[in-house]
Amino acid sequence: MALKGKVALVTGSTSGIGLGIARALAAQGADVMLNGFGDAGQIEALRAGMEKEFSVKVAYDGADLSTGAGVAGLVKAAQDKLGGVDVLVNNAGIQFTAAVQDFPDERWDAIIALNLSAVFHGMKAAIPGMKAKGWGRIINIASAHGLVASANKVAYVAAKHGVLGATKVAALELANSGVTVNAICPGWVLTPLVQKQIEDRAKANGTSVDAEKVKLLSEKQPMHKFTTPEHLGALTVFLCSDAAETMTGVAHSMDGGWVAQ
Ligand code: NAD
To answer: Residue 193 CA: which ligand 1 atom is closest?
Structure first.
């Protein structure tokens, strides 16, 4: 229960990686603020279920993080409802694929707003409270696409490269404050975000979803295995530990060897 007495805010935690990370932090005793979209009844069941399973406080706020005001409001809600933000995991993200020349302006703006600007707004809102306490952990969920590119993902790749830049700047500024700032760069994780890409590819290529899963992995990863939300939760818990107190400004890959090539 290394995180007993701490509060963790995990953005985009009603699904996928964010949910895996929120559960891992709660399992270590942290009170958790959940955020993200979805069916109200299912989210309430998730929130209440986590409270019971881990004996911690779990709150939920459905703020839309595509505006700075939305992000600042979410940080304030965590402070008001749970007493602060000691661990901030900037995880919410979306994807869209098209060639640069065909990429809709509106999709570019939406991806930059959520995948990049929300990370800036979240750090900006949470840092003063962390500095005042002399302890904090900021973990930004970037991607292998923060380090290397793939065709047809201009906004996502640009945003994720930007997340790594913002992570390094904040890490330098906070180096002697007790607050560390790191990024995690997952390879393929089988979440709704990736499931949709696989289904789109199966439709476009006239193949099966299972065949496209294997193709997707083998195109990018030497290891033909998905990283899981539980793996990423465990890495996040490690980054929150005392053992990681001098790890800051780093992009931690967990990607089946993707960027080793
Ligand atoms: P997901 O689609 O399963 O979950 C995304 C979460 O963000 C959901 O809770 C959703 O409700 C929330 N969300 C979406 N728009 C929002 C908004 N405007 N405001 C607030 N919340 C919003 O996706 P995931 O695969 O779990 O991805 C999580 C993060 O991990 C993203 O930043 C993604 O880029 C990154 N990532 C994913 C993979 C992968 O293979 N799945 C790989 C590398 C990085």
So the answer is: 2
Q: How far is the CA of 176 from the centre of ligand 1 (A)?
A: 31
Beta-carbon contacts of 65 under 8 Å, excluding residues fewer than 6 positions away, are 11, 12, 35, 71, 74, 92, 114, 118, 121, 122
Residues with CB under 6 A from ligand 1: 12-18, 35-38, 64-66, 91-94, 114-115, 141, 143, 186, 188-189, 191-194
SS3 annotation, 174-202: CCCCCEEEEEEEECCECCHHHHHHHHHHH
Mean pLDDT, residues 124-134? 98
pLDDT tens, residue by residue, 167-187 = 999 999 999 999 999 999 999
Distance, CA 244 to ligand 1 centroid (Å)? 25
Q: Are 91 and 22 in contact (CB under 8 A)?
A: no
Q: Are 92 and 193 in contact (CB under 8 A)?
A: no
- Collapsing DSSP to helix, strand or coil, 32 comes out as strand
> Candidates 91, 227, 254: which one to mutate for ligand 1, based on the most atoms within 8 Å of Cβ?
91
Residues that are catalytic:
156
Q: Exposed/middle/buried for 158, CB within 10 Å: 0-12, 13-18, 19+? A: middle
